[in-house]
Amino acid sequence: METAGVRRRGPLRKAVQFIRRRWRRWRADVHIVSFPKCGRTWLVLLIATVLQKHYGIRTRKPLRLRGYAWRRREIPYILQHHDGGPEFQRPDELPTDKGFYAGKRVVFLVRDPRDVLVSTYFQKSRRNYNFEGSLSDYVHHPVGGIETIVRFYNIWATHRDVPRAFLLLTYEDLHRDTVGELRRVIEFLGLSGVADATLERAAEYCRFDNMRRLEAGNELGSSALAARDANDEETFKTRKGQVGGYTEYLSAEDIAYIDAVIDAQLDPLYAMYRRSATGART
Question: Using one digit for the tens of pLDDT, what is the confidence trace for 64-78?
Answer without folding.
Answer: 999 999 899 999 999
